[in-house]
Amino acid sequence: MPQIKRYSVLALCILAVLILFPLGMSGNFWIKLLAVLALALSALGVYDLIQSRHAVLRNYPVIGHMRFLLESIRPEIRQYLIESDSEELPFSREARSLVYQRAKGAEDKKPFGTSEKVYEAGYAWVTHSVAPKVIHDTDFRISIGGPDCRQPYMASLYNISAMSFGALSANAIAALNLGAKTGGFAHDTGEGGISRYHRANGGDLIYQVASGYFGCRTAEGGFDPEKFRQQAADPQIKMIEIKLSQGAKPGHGGMLPAAKISPEIAEARGVPMGQDCLSPPAHSTFSTPIGLCNFIAELRELSNGKPIGFKLCIGHRREFMCIVKAMIETGITPDFIVVDGKEGGTGSAPLEFANRVGMPMLEGLNFVHNTLRGAGLRDRIRIGAAGKVVSAFDLARAIALGADWCNSARGFMFAIGCIQSQSCHTNACPVGIATQDKLRQRAIDVGSKSDRVARFHRNTLHALGEIAGAAGLSSPNDFLPYHFMFRQSDGTFLDGNEAFPYLPESFLVGARDYPELRDWQSRWNRASAETFEPSTIPQGRFER
């Protein structure tokens, strides 16, 4: 009997055909319509029985399609009907609502107390002062440009992180850039080159140069110095960022199939139509730490002294120390380093990479900050941080742990209407942001969405000023680890100086021995400026 039940819906459809078609001969429109529907479902059920692709449909013809329908709308069902306000998948409803409210200029206050689980592990809070201050000017800025930079940039403390044209639609890019222009902050181009939509409204740009060298590449895919010089001469480009890796898929390249390359994408990337477009996992211009430093110096010269930096997600900590050792050996330092956390987003990443590869932002940021301190280079190099930074608290915490400024991609996507449908890789984004579909992207009105981008930025910095003032500070740049507390798994909490301490200046290069930091010094001693390869030791495996 249970075996027969599996085919009951198909049997009912066939029975309906046998009953309704004779009745439909009377000419009744609705009976005819039902008969045609029953016939269509019966035909679908017969096809389900003979097809070999989906086992569930062979066992449950017709009704089995409900499984695929429900699966296709599962993110929306979960987001709107099931998840709580604080459940992060990957951004909580509360975080998204905060961005929407600030972008629209709507009320962003919260009644009836917090919904955060303040006694559970992972909860963090700001320590406030009994003598708070009022900060009136919240247009917080930082100068980026080391001693070798000839065109330093006064950057906002909050900027738009790297998102390429191609991953985002033309209207989305245009709205983000116009918002950056209106609000006076920077817009990272992402690795896909500088499109006409980045240029249209004149917002400040950070030109990202990745392994594909889009916009400055030879016909064979290598780096073209003259093309780079021409790009960097544009006054709209304020800084150049070498992408070593990104948080969501560090160490993973990518390939844009020829079928997805439009004339506009080909124009921005400098690639031919009709050919697959490859982004290799690694750069071809350099392969050693010293090579990276020399590339930094070359880009600085070609750009006439604009700030040059690099972006990475921390993996093997020794390899970052290799880069720092190369800085010391060559005397060439970047003007900035952007630390991307593994919680960073992307339009598409293998699940294992998105979930399990790379260091989260807070730990990566603290490691980079302390390594530069230990090498005596921290005062020459600015640090940016990226990785789920959407609120003023996120900004304040990152600054306290070593960041000079922060970038956000998904925060600004929410500002232009992203609903976290998680369909970025399908070209079917329901709000027209992550798609190249001309009809879908028409949903984005560039003028009104750019206003929301600028308003979200302004209101977030205003909130940052309020938090800094509550802590008794005159500027958010004064945040230090001890202004934060971090709840531990056993119910206790640590002062920020204990959880994320600032390590002594020059402890890696000075003569003094720090017994409590010997693991740092051991890793530093294994690092080499000449190669990223680990040194060989008789014992075999060792800590990276």
UniProtKB/TrEMBL annotation:
The chain crosses the membrane at residues 7-23. Keywords: Membrane, Oxidoreductase, Transmembrane, Transmembrane helix. It is an enzyme of class 1 (oxidoreductase). One of its GO terms (molecular function) is glutamate synthase (NADH) activity. InterPro entries: Aldolase_TIM (IPR013785), GltB (IPR024188), Glu_synthdom (IPR002932), YerD (IPR027283). CDD domains: GltS_FMN (cd02808). Residues 154-473 form the Glutamate synthase domain. Its EC number is 1.4.1.14. The keyword Transmembrane helix applies. One of its GO terms (biological process) is glutamate biosynthetic process. Belongs to the glutamate synthase family. This is Glutamate synthase, large chain.
